[in-house]
Amino acid sequence: MTKASALIAAAGAGERLGRGINKVFVEVAGKPILAHTVSVFESCEAVEEIIIITGESDIEAADELVGRFGFAKVRHIVAGGAQRQDSVLNGLERATCEIITIHDAARPMVTVDMVDRSIAKAVEMGACIAAVPVIDTIKSAQDGIVAATVDRSFLYSVQTPQTFRADLLRSAYEQAYADGFYATDDAALVEQLGGKVAIVQGSYDNIKVTTPSDLHIAEVKLRASSREIDSERNVEMRTGIGFDVHKFADGRDLWLGGVKIDYEKGLMGHSDADVILHAVSDALLGAAGLGDIGRHFPDSDLAYKGISSLALLGRVNNLLAVDGWRVVNVDTVVICERPKIAPYIDQMRELISDVLDTVPDRISVKGTTTERLGFTGRGEGIACQAVAVIARS
Question: What is the mean pLDDT of each run of 10 residues along the chain (393 residues)?
């Protein structure tokens, strides 16, 4: 089988996404965009090596990601250049295989089948691009006035991967730099050289994540794909319910969701009495069939007096991990008249997700009241209900 080097172009700043970091490190459906993309090429039998091309300041982050996800085929992480073409050249100089496939890291919904077909076509024809027929009506215009309707039957929207024989691509790059020619994709360099570029069918799902709306689409698509994969792998999933209540007490700090809340009273309890984290812990333990927090951390044990409930939640997560469980998602409802928890919710989600080795979008914290009915309505305490889903292969 002909082997290929995969160049993953990840050096763009991604300013239109507005996240303040290289967009390929933004998390979508549980892991960074770059990890989704690299995992596809890692799974391709025809791909011998992967070379990630990223910004100089992102090399360390890319290296950490490779180690975190165990990508064994990544041979090099190289710094990009001033323009995309310069970046790809830097990766090309490290490639050793006879076929080169180049892909935008910001297209995480590429498939193994698409890569395999591209490699096979490049072996046959020398050069190919993934592309889809344009489905919108296209018009040319001048000064804001329509000049003509363009025949779209000849038009394609170009994607990546773009795949080439290594010798052809190197010749195209050499000639382009000799001519001072820059293009927005690699196929244009081969075209400039006089080479023929074939088309393989891409996918309308194979979008490049550029804007916040693209990010939302990718989230939905990748989560759906993940659920399908989990189903195929016969992943075992379980659900647990947790409930906890603590009454207010003078002279104590109020801790909710791992956050110290500015309030006149705290909650009474042996630990820090964090009612949210206690409910979450019980939901997780219940789902795994491991009892409840009273069994594991009894209030008769002085070792747990005043302990942070985040520490207890971390121990719960470790108990689950020993049995192979991972957290899928957690949903909580905090029931109280006061204090208002809305200003603290994002921080709570960050802290809880960090302890549970997941991402904030898998943690939900909501507040509600009982319309002044019952002990919470009278301001005597706080209750919390939690539902947790866990899974293992």
Answer: 93 62 86 94 95 94 92 95 94 97 95 94 97 90 93 92 97 96 95 95 89 84 67 75 93 91 88 94 94 87 85 91 90 92 89 87 90 86 95 80
Contact 363, 352 (CB under 8 A): yes
Instruction: Give the pLDDT score at 17.
Output: 57
Round to whole Å and give the CA distance between 17 and 50: 26
Question: Which of 361, 363, 287 has its CA nearest to residue 325?
Answer: 287
3-state SS class at 240: strand
Number of domains into which the chain is organized: 2
213: phi then psi, degrees, rounded to nearest 5:
-70, -35
- Say yes or no: 175 and 255 in one domain: no
What DSSP string describes 115-153? HHHHHHHHHHHSEEEEEEE--S-EEEEETTEEEEEE-GG
Cis status, amide bond into 161, omega within 30 of 0: yes
Residues 187 and 41 in one domain: yes
Q: Are both 129 and 22 inside the same structural domain?
A: yes
CATH number reported for the structural domain that contains residue 273 in this entry = 3.30.1330.50
* Structure-token match 């809305």, residue found: 342
Same domain, yes or no, for 204 and 256?
no
Of the residues 232, 267, 292, the one at which a domain ends: 232
Per the structure, the complete domain to which residue 186 belongs is given by: 4-232
Amino acid at 51: I
Amino acid at 71: F
This prediction has a pTM of 0.59
Q: Do the beta carbons of residue 193 and residue 172 sit within 8 Å?
A: yes
Residue type, 185: D
Are 135 and 39 part of one and the same domain? Answer: yes
Residue 191 CB neighbour total at 10 angstroms:
15
Q: How far apart are CA 358 and CA 237, in angstroms?
A: 16
Which one of 205, 232, 259 terminates a domain? 232
Core vs surface per residue 45-70: b (16+ CB within 10 A) or e: ebbbbbbbbbbeebbebbeebbeebe
Task: Give the span between the Cα atoms of 161 and 103, in whole angstroms.
Answer: 4
Note whether 26 and 171 are same-domain residues.
yes
Cβ–Cβ under 8 Å, residues 100 and 168: no
Both 123 and 269 in one domain: the answer is no
